[in-house]
Amino acid sequence: MTHHVSMSSLLPICTALESSEGQPAVLATLVKVVGSAYRRPGAMMLVTAEGAVVGTISGGCLESDVRAHAEQVLSAGRPSLLHYDLARDDPVWGLGMGCKADIDVLLEPLAPGALPQHLAFTRQLVRTRRYGVVATVFRAEGDTVSVGARLLLAEAPGPAGDLAAGPLREAILVAAREALERRRDAVAEHRGPWGSVEVLYRVVVPPIALFTCGGGDAPPLVRLAEQLGWHATQVQGDAQRTGLEAAPAPDERTAAVVMTHNYERDLALLGELLPSPAGYLGILGPRARTEQLLADLAARGSAPSAGQVARLHGPVGLDVGAESAEEVALAIAAEVQAFFARRPGGPLRHKQGAIHE
Q: Which residue would you say has higher pLDDT here, 295 or 99?
């Protein structure tokens, strides 16, 4: 099962930094969680010099305390690691979180000016829909390696960052490549001549790309997708063309939803989308209509394979009793999210074990 952090907070943080007019800021990154917490390692929050906050690293419980520590980090000008022992429900915090976790948060002062290298690297991966890993040292013994040192690894080209040529290079590279191959975040401790360091390996995964092929029902789904940080495209076609020729090329992180309410257009869209690399394909309408569409494709010499049919979600969406266009959008988005997270989409109260694997 893959595990990675949503990039939906990345762009607001980058925008806030670029519009800060030369003001310093502090980046708070959730780097380690042992136990049950609201957010997973990799979640980020920005605290500006004026005290404004962008993003979250918890359910709203740690933010005020992190904000107070951010002022000290700005004054000191060096990174700091905060540790919250919430497993003991320590009354010192007075947070009333109800979580049972040990949490580490890395605070880093950001100088005015250019975007930090690892954020610029991540944003470029997101924009170009490529995979990568950001490896961050958040605890270190001795003076060989600094807290906040990083290695940035994309599928191509080679590694970059502070650690790309240091004594930790090979150990970090091996672990980063493993995280990239597994598409799964990790926290690891490395021991050697440099002493002991702990490193967060955060996998950058392209956002879901959503194609909505249709008219009236599509706008609420597009709006919801954009709020989730997905790349949304409304595909507009007509009787002569599907409209897919004007859309970005689909990939394994693409969800295409056919919702035109026009039989011939749906037939043409399915004919193009079923053989495509799109990871998820959904179609609005009754099951019998979808089966007839598939039968007509076969009759026209374009019979889909069993694997292609298995990718087709029809009727599209989770069973939440949706009636309005907005409710249908919710049902579809929930199924798409569950599909790419490799989750069944059922009630959490029926799940055995932890919410986060």
A: 295
Are the CB atoms for 33 and 102 separated by under 8 Å? yes
Sign of torsion over alpha carbons 301, 306, 307, 308: positive
Distance CA 166, CA 172 (A): 10
Of 95, 18, 90, 41, whose CA–CA distance to 63 is shortest?
Answer: 95
Strand ranges, E, within the chain: 25-36, 44-48, 53-55, 80-85, 100-110, 132-140, 150-154, 186-192, 195-204, 209-214, 231-235, 254-259, 280-283, 312-313
Domains and CATH numbers, the chain: 10-110 (no CATH), 117-204 (no CATH), 209-340 (3.40.50.720)
pLDDT, tens digit (0-9, with 9 covering 90-100), for 213-222:
987 789 999 9
What is the amino acid identity at position 303? A
The model's pTM: 0.85
Kindly report the backbone phi and psi dihedral angles of residue 42, in degrees, each rounded to the nearest multiple of 5, phi listed first.
Answer: 110, -20
Higher pLDDT: 10 or 157? It is 10
The answer to whether residue 1 scores a pLDDT higher than 50 is no
Cα gap 98→352, rounded to integer Å: 20
356 or 288, greater pLDDT: 288
Is 187 in contact with 41 (CB distance < 8 Å)? yes
